[in-house]
Structure prediction request, 512 residues.
Amino acid sequence: MQQNAYGKDTALPGAQQKFGFQSVSAVLRPVRFHQFGPGPFGLPGFRLPGDHGHFPGKLLQRETSKSAPCGNDLCDICTSGDCIRAAERKKEREEREPFFRITGGQTLRGDIRVHGAKNSVLPIMAASALCSTPVLLSRVPRLSDTGVSLRILDSLGCKSALSGTEAVIDASHISGSRIPDRLVREMRSSVVFLGSVAARTGEAFLCLPGGCELGARPIDLHLMGLRALGMTIEERGEKLHAYHNGLRGAEITLPFPSVGATENILLAAVLADGETVLKGAAREPEIADLCRFLRECGAVIVGEGSSTLYIEGVRSLHGCSYPVMADRIEAATFLCCTAVCGGDVTVTGFDPATIGSILATLREMGCSLQIYRDSVRIQSDGRLLAPGRIETEPFPGFPTDAQPIFMALGCLAKGETVIRERIFESRFKHLPQFVRMGADITVDGQEAVLHGVERLHGSPLKAMDLRGGAALVTAALAAEGESRIHGLSHIDRGYERLERSLQSLGADISRI
Ligand code: UD1
Prediction:
């Protein structure tokens, strides 16, 4: 059984008939089992020859007990955190997963075109659920998170198809309001479906996404905004039920310009009765892209790019054809890799104004930049100067998503770099791995002080989150010797085949 890159089903009609599942996904996302007493063929637990402890859903319904320790050292399927065997198996599984092998020291040369933006396509896909006729999206990045969004839409009764970098989403017959828990857990930003699904269908069910690798991530601002628009939101344990009898425009002020909360409020306000004024809105370019998409669908929105958005609600939205904006963080990643490895690279197909603070920092670090309307050429000899202080801030400030990648640069830049993370509480997880490579870093709370070293050395590394993973790749490309980077599922959430892009510039990187 296979899944394609997006987690969408490949044709498996035989299995579908055999197991009587509505969709092949049900077969592919099996229930995990604990021990049920003696299993067939005298094996402990429920296993069959050739089976790896996972069984398609309908045959067996009992769920694993996640709380009790397993206590059975033959069990290889227990998900209990207390089970020693489970920890060993997890390690073995991780070792079997693909990894990047990188030999550092190559200079980078050539042109590279940026893919569509992850942080733009996800809310736009959620917004497509508002439209009563089909939407055609182009420049869709091929990411695992894009696949999760399409699976959410499918689970709500929408139809979607993906071909190359184009996606068609038809929400004309949207019938469901329950966003499956497993998909919310796979992708935290699925919370952005709350506003659109509730606005379109009258209600939405969603489990709380909870914290993540970046620390606690509350959604109080999302809920505050949606409630102000007339939504009732009941919170029972980890479950949310949002419903309404018609949304009304309102004046809402966000105390912090949360990107996700701005998106959720926008997605509900476009179908609310009357005018909404959203003050303190996030100004990120991805919000402006969402506004442009919604306007193409018939919404009335003014003010994108500023911190006050005016939205005049309409009765319904229609589909449109829309190209997703380019990924500014991917563009920044290619520029940073060139900065630290040395070389001459032109990054094309994106708006340099979306990364103004990053370009200014690269110049301070000694890189030569030529900035054009939709591309940037960077030339670097690889010998960087410390930029002094970097503080992450909401747009147009220095983006938190680029912080880990600049930490990789700071490790090798001459002098002292101070990095202060002001958006997320836990965004230094990649730091011990830089130290393992030979970096000189001290941390005090949300501040890291780096003293540039002459060289980093290749090491076995593990990505702990998406941008931290990209930062490890950046450091490994500049390090002496070979590095192996595990945890690629994090990197694949936000970069479309990163290794291919970097290979095209001359980097020695391969997915093993
Ligand atoms: C989005 C981006 C992410 C980026 C971040 C900041 C997507 C899919 N993700 O995440 O890549 O790093 O913006 O630019 O677009 N907060 C609250 N209460 C809320 C909402 C947020 O306290 O209701 C806090 C968060 O915990 C965090 C900070 O506000 O500390 C920023 O969060 P937010 O701007 O909402 O980021 P996301 O939308 O989650």
Remarks:
- The domain at 100-115+326-511 is CATH 3.65.10.10 (UDP-n-acetylglucosamine1-carboxyvinyl-transferase; Chain).
